[in-house]
Amino acid sequence: MIVIAPSILTANFARLEEEVHSLEAAGADWIHCDVMDGHFVPNLTFGPPVVRSLRAITTLPLDVHLMIEDPDRWIEAYRTAGADSITVHAEACRHLHRTLHHIRESGARAGVSVNPASPLALIDEVVGDVDLVLIMSVNPGFGGQSFIPGSVGRVRRVASMLRAAGSAAAVQVDGGIDAVTSRAVVGAGATVLVAGNYILTAPSRAEAVRTLRASAAPDRLPPGAVQA
Ligand code: DX5
Ligand code: ZN
């Protein structure tokens, strides 16, 4: 079972309610919220008030991806605002184990992410402390970038790290996910797909969600879907 988590980064921020309802109608499983602070990444998005407003208009799980420095300071605020999962970057945490426990104690699912150039060894010691491992397949900061091909091997390696450790954490991939790259990462062991541009700019968002979901069962790809 593949979880589809559209990112609202590419949404029209003046019409967020409509956008989220359109993603719900398209079959989204989670709503991926990209929080950027202008320091950890060279872009700025939104903070807890927006997450709180989204919480009021959707029952879908809110998957909050914190691309911010010193995320500890903000965990409580995002959880109180309504985040169901909170993912931090290993590169931004001085005491990663503590931060992940802090997230779990707040009642949210804990996620850890690594940038494309970061060694997977950064998360080796915490695979038992997380519910999600997010492999960035672009350098974080912007939507619409090209998938970095080496990410497929990283997904495979992290999936086997998790298996070896007996961890039930899901492998999530974020950045440049489309009909072709989704099949590659799902084949390598990913079960949660984040997609911004591919879903939000599609002529039919429902068709785009169906296509991504079918990555695990290529024989059931909908007509017209791009073959790898
Ligand atoms: C990138 C964000 C992603 C991004 C994905 O920094 O974390 O969630 O919005 O967008 P696409 O799918 O367009 O690459
Ligand atoms: Zn993201």
What topology does this entry show?
Elements: E1 3-6, H1 16-25, E2 31-36, H2 48-55, E3 62-67, H3 75-81, E4 85-89, H4 96-106, E5 109-114, E6 132-136, H5 151-164, E7 170-174, H6 179-187, E8 192-195, H7 197-200, H8 205-213
The structure holds D-xylitol-5-phosphate and zinc ion.
Zinc ion binds next to strand 2.
Compose a concise summary of this entry:
With 228 residues, this protein is of the alpha/beta class.
Structure description:
This protein has 228 residues and is an alpha/beta fold. The protein has one domain (3-220): Aldolase class I (TIM Barrel), CATH 3.20.20.70. It is 32% helix and 18% strand. It is built from eight helices and eight strands, in the order E-H-E-H-E-H-E-H-E-E-H-E-H-E-H-H. An eight-stranded parallel beta sheet has the order 1-8-7-6-5-4-3-2. Zinc ion binds next to strand 2.
Primary descriptors:
228 residues; alpha/beta; TIM Barrel; 8-stranded parallel sheet; 32% helix; binds zinc ion
